[in-house]
Amino acid sequence: RGPARGGAARGRQRWRADGRALRKLPVHVGLVVTEEEPSYADMASLVVWCMAVGISYVSVYDHNGIFKRNNSRLMDEILKQQQELLGLDCSKYSVEFANHDKTGQVLNCQSTLKVLSPEDGKADIVKAAQNFCQLVAQQQRTHSDLDVNMLDNLLSSTHGFPDPDLVLKFGPVDSTLGFLPWHIRLTEIISLPSHLNISYEDFFSALHHYAACEQRWGK
Q1: Is this structure's pTM higher than 0.85?
Q2: Does residue 126 share a domain with residue 113?
Q3: What pLDDT, in 10s, does the model give residues 34-49?
Q4: How far apart are CA 8 and CA 110, in angstroms?
Q5: Were 52 and a residue from 5, 15, 140, 185 both cysteine, which residue would form a disulfide, CB within 3.0 to 4.6 Å?
């Protein structure tokens, strides 16, 4: 147990140093899996690495909604890996699910996690449109008031979350397949071949690439 604890401590120091060394660290990272067979263990590793380098907000998404339907299984794996990789010396942070059906406490360093499915993005835009139409009907708004800022204010899937700075997309599909379609218009998207058996080096290389990029503003 002693060597394992020592290895975890060295890992924590390395990850924190890596996060501080980046010229630009994303505030909110979306982890988007387009592969048909998602791996709970590999996704949990990615979530824990995000938290370990100091990323404040993490979203997990797969286009079949498997992670969201099985969020307890994913959370169990995240807890297990946090304890193995990070030890128990971090403060608590809240875990919020986008559909608000489950809230729990997990040990780590002030990060917040949402698990999303395609319904969150689609339903959110529909609800925002309905809310705007209701405001028009009540004569609180006119049709000409609808702009980017108005729609942003009406969207709620990432309420309390900033828009993602970075999406890491895993798999061969050249699309984010419905992941928060409105919120990622200014997001840097980096594609990786697969999340299966992904290494920390692959993950950190993507963060390094993001840090070297200029904001693309939707280009």
Answers
A1: no
A2: no
A3: 999 999 999 999 999 9
A4: 19
A5: 15
